[in-house]
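Hello,

Following up on my earlier ticket. Below are the two sequence lines again, exactly as submitted.
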Amino acid sequence: MSKQFHPNNYKDTAKTYQPRPNVFLNCLKAFFVGGLICVIGQGLIQLYSTVFDFTEKEAGNPTLTTLILISAILTGFGVYDKLGQFAGAGSAVPVTGFANTITSAALEHKSEGLVLGVASNMFKLAGPVIVFGVVSAYIVGVIRYLIQQLM
Amino acid sequence: MRKMGTQTWLFENKIYVNGASTISGPREKDGPLGHTFDYSYDDLYCGEKNWELAERKLLQHSIDVCLQKAKVTKDQVDLFLSGDLLNQNVTANYVARTLPIPYLCMFGACSTSMETTAVASALVDAKFADYAIAATSSHNATAERQFRYPTEYGAQKPLTATTTVTGAGSSLISRNRSDIRIESATIGKVMDYQIGDPFDLGSAMAPAAYDTIKTHFQDLGRTPEDYDLILTGDLSAVGSPILKDMLKEDGFHVEDIHNDSGSMIYNSEQPVLAGGSGCACSSLVTYGYVFNQLRKGMFNRVFIVATGALMSPVMIQQNETIPTIAHGVVFMREEMSE
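Thanks for your patience. The regenerated structure is below:
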């Protein structure tokens, strides 16, 4: 057997057979879908602050909740995973993506019961985000405190 | 002689497929081979409450149809050999619980279709059984959940990823003459060429298919010209060209006669990335399309090489690579008019 298919080199050889993703097109899709989700969010802020009398700061929370609700419903109808395959980071990074990780895991484990199925598994994918979010917030907070003391 | 060369079994008695069945899910029905399946369900739940139950229904249904076609009752069957992709082989075990048949559970990941067929043939050949059923199943949603992410999770999969086929296939094997004969089988070795990407199983499995096919030729002193078709299980669009190039280096030119079940079961418009995979991928294509072609006389001798990635998500997280295996079985057309 030639060198290229030798077990030690196989991994590199196999790479040459893999279809290459179109990075530019993927970025473009992610930009537009992610952007569209943000535009919808902005529209909701306008709606809540003009029609419902929230201040612009207060309008943030109902906007997030609405986006999460939309994402959860789209996940339940089997749309969000298709959107994710199309848009990649564009639909994974916004809060809707976070909502999708929780809803999809909850749906997946529904058959194992409400407590040990849904409740104990729904943060399976979102858990690391929360853990590292809290830990990094703590570290940044300590650094900020130290800098404030020194100044 | 029963053992040929190093890894090949040549059956002494004439072993036949008395009946074979294919039950598929909705996406497979829409594929180019949809018309060859005995029955296709219109939704992934198959009328059941959850996906695990749906997969069991597929397997149960395929066994029923297989026995009906062979005109054999459950009581006549001496052995049931089955396996699937789920932990503890739950689909096969729970279906076996409903059958009055002695049972051997097997696991070879997606190679289980030919693993069960090879072992069943050997046991029938050795007269440990008169009738044996070899059956496998896989289900897109149960496999996704076990090996990857929740089904509705919106992560982007790479183009090398495959799509698990939903379906089940069964065959009834005996020494009673029929139009399809099982001639020989080559049992594969576990190969690991250091691929650790669970979204690129085609590349991981190509060396296993290469080793089994090459050994088969050497053990029986044959060449690709002796076959009308060499069908791999689920190497997909990525693994198939690697296999062909590896065999070419050893002087085996299979370009014209090789095909891959994973590349045949869906059409190019379907959103399946690199193609189909799963135990049902090779069994649906083999027991449906390939057997039809054998019966029609379009093929005389075919070599079905089911490939399996012996992957565990825990091992992947521990930075292990993916061991793979391939088992091959030779089916031949038997002239019934003699």
